[in-house]
């Protein structure tokens, strides 16, 4: 047994051999492109902390969506940046809000692109938290009805899927009931089921203009040290009606992705978050690493761990890179 009879390098000797025995493949079908949408017309505003990523107005978001679809990317997820914010985030379920307007315009210009919407209050509240607040406390139960109203407004505007990211207990059930009661029982829910209170979100909060104005989000997002708790969160969300569950962030939580996939066998998504993207961009700009190589290796690691879908700011790049190598 063993060497010299067995030489594992034999099947690494040529690119043809490597392709034949490659265990994990990354496809354009695996990626979802995030889009940040704000009010206005003709807006395409660069985000300094996310090189290559922009804030769009609904009209330019639709133009961007056309390019996304043409690249073969199956889906986009929308994040809203409203002009007006208040304590309850009421602009989040305005029928003429930025996300609702963007959905309609994207649907007018695309044929098969799946439009997913982020459902959370943080982008719409003046305090930047994901729920209703009382003093310094983020209230769970009063938040559920507001999240359900937001999700329903997105679906009424034409969204194909909703993705609650708030981490309030019971929000999947509340959204599922609201959709079912309104005749939208076929609309799937992608739940941010295991979303950690991570320091990797900094650039996103800049992009979405949603940093908390007091404290942090550790009372409702998960502690980075906990793994078993993630399985409990996923189990509850699936029981409440989630169709896809997400682990967020990605690269530091590969073990969680693996455990979720092994335990539940359900569709699993991963968010390759803003900090992961920005760090690679910054190092690549300095010539320290190869952006394409690092990005693809990171995404492959998430696929290898068990994820089925990856929300990534590299989605358009991935589509081009894979096309060039095919």
Salient structural properties:
TIM Barrel, 326 residues, 11 helices, 12 strands, two-stranded antiparallel sheet, 39% helix, alpha/beta, single chain, globular, 10-stranded mixed β-sheet
List the helices and strands and how they pair.
Blueprint: H1 15-21, E1 31-38, E2 44-46, E3 54-56, H2 58-70, E4 75-81, H3 98-109, E5 114-119, E6 132-134, E7 137-139, H4 141-157, E8 161-164, H5 171-181, E9 190-195, H6 202-207, H7 228-240, E10 244-248, H8 254-264, E11 268-272, H9 274-285, H10 291-305, E12 309-312, H11 315-325
Parallel strand pairs: 1-3, 1-4, 1-12, 4-5, 5-8, 9-10, 10-11, 11-12
Antiparallel strand pairs: 2-3, 6-7
Description:
39% of the residues lie in helices and 17% in strands. The chain is of the alpha/beta class. It has a single domain, classed as Aldolase class I (TIM Barrel), CATH 3.20.20. The relative contact order is 0.13. The model has no long low-confidence stretch (mean pLDDT 95).
């Amino acid at each position: 047994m063993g060497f010299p009879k067995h030489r594992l390098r034999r099947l690494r000797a040529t690119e043809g051999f490597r392709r034949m025995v490659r265990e994990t493949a990354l496809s354009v079908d695996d990626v979802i492109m995030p889009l940040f949408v704000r009010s206005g017309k003709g807006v395409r505003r660069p985000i300094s902390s996310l090189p290559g990523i922009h804030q769009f107005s609904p009209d330019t978001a639709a133009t961007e969506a056309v390019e996304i679809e043409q690249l073969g990317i199956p889906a986009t997820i929308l994040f809203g940046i409203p002009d007006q914010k208040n304590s309850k985030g009421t602009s989040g379920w305005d029928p003429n809000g930025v996300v609702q307007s963007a959905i309609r315009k994207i649907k007018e210009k695309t044929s098969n692109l799946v439009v997913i919407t982020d459902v959370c209050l943080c982008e719409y509240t003046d305090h930047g938290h994901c729920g209703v607040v009382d003093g310094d406390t983020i209230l769970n139960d009063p938040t559920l009805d507001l999240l359900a109203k937001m999700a329903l407004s997105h679906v009424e505007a034409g969204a194909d899927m909703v993705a609650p990211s708030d981490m309030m207990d019971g929000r999947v059930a509340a959204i599922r009931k609201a959709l079912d009661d309104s005749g939208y029982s076929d609309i799937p829910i992608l739940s941010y089921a295991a979303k950690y209170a991570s320091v990797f979100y900094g650039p996103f909060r800049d992009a979405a203009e949603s940093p908390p104005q007091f404290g942090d989000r550790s009372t409702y997002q998960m502690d980075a040290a906990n793994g078993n708790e993630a399985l409990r969160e996923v189990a509850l969300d699936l029981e409440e009606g989630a169709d896809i569950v997400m682990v967020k962030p990605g690269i530091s939580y590969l073990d969680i992705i693996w455990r979720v996939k092994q335990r539940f066998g359900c569709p699993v998504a991963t968010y390759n978050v803003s900090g992961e993207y920005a760090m690679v961009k910054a190092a690549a700009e300095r010539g320290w690493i190869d952006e394409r190589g690092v990005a693809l290796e990171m995404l492959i690691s998430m696929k290898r761990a068990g994820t089925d879908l990856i929300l990534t700011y590299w989605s358009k790049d991935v589509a081009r890179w894979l096309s060039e190598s095919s």
